[in-house]
């Protein structure tokens, strides 16, 4: 009898743990969230004068993953706080299948994880909070970003 109670308790514990994880990092399809280039560019303009501050999470000062987390929150989509966690928690996407709203990651050698993250727009362009300050739109084909690219992740599908 004690073994049965223990097993039931363990199963309930495991089930609740899985649903918590999905609730925090899983959302609905991008199209239902209106993840559009126009909306992303509009948000980027709001952040154009934001200084890069490691650990920051708002327009007074933010780092790259604070920026991406903030943008996704505007689409009612929760993503992890750090660049490394954002990379590992989303669905891995091949570069040739990138869609508007996918996160793109780079190994820059800077910051606590030596990584950087931006949000894909289209036609090999993405937005990111630059370490020089402010949100910039740049191309994945730029020689700097092309050589640093390490992968992409999608949330919500």
TrEMBL record:
Q: Where is the signal peptide?
A: none
> What GO biological process terms are annotated to this protein in UniProt?
proteolysis
Q: Which InterPro entries match?
A: Murein_DD/LD_carboxypeptidase, NLP_P60_dom, Papain-like_cys_pep_sf
UniProt keywords, alphabetically: Hydrolase, Lipoprotein, Protease, Signal, Thiol protease
* Keyword DNA damage among record annotations: no
The NlpC/P60 domain, residue ranges: 34-156
Q: Which Pfam families match?
A: NLPC_P60
| GO molecular function terms attached to this record | cysteine-type peptidase activity
> Does Protease show up as a keyword for this record?
yes
Q: Which family does it belong to?
A: Belongs to the peptidase C40 family.
Q: Name it.
A: Lipoprotein, NlpC/P60 family
Which species is this record about? Campylobacter cuniculorum DSM 23162 = LMG 24588
């Amino acid at each position: 009898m004690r073994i049965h109670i223990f097993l039931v308790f363990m199963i309930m514990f495991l089930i609740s743990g899985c649903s918590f994880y999905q609730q925090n990092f899983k959302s609905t399809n991008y199209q239902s969230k209106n993840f559009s280039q126009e909306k992303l560019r509009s948000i980027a303009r709001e952040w154009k004068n934001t200084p890069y501050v490691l650990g920051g999470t708002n327009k007074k000062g933010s780092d790259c993953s604070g920026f991406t987390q903030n943008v996704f929150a505007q689409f009612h989509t929760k993503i992890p706080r750090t660049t490394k966690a954002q990379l590992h928690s989303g669905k891995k996407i091949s570069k040739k299948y990138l869609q508007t709203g996918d996160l793109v990651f780079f190994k820059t050698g800077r910051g606590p994880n030596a990584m950087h993250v931006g949000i894909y727009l289209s036609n090999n362009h993405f937005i990111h909070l630059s370490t020089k300050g402010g949100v910039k739109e740049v191309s994945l084909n730029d020689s700097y970003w092309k050589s640093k690219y390490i992968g992409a992740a999608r949330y919500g599908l």
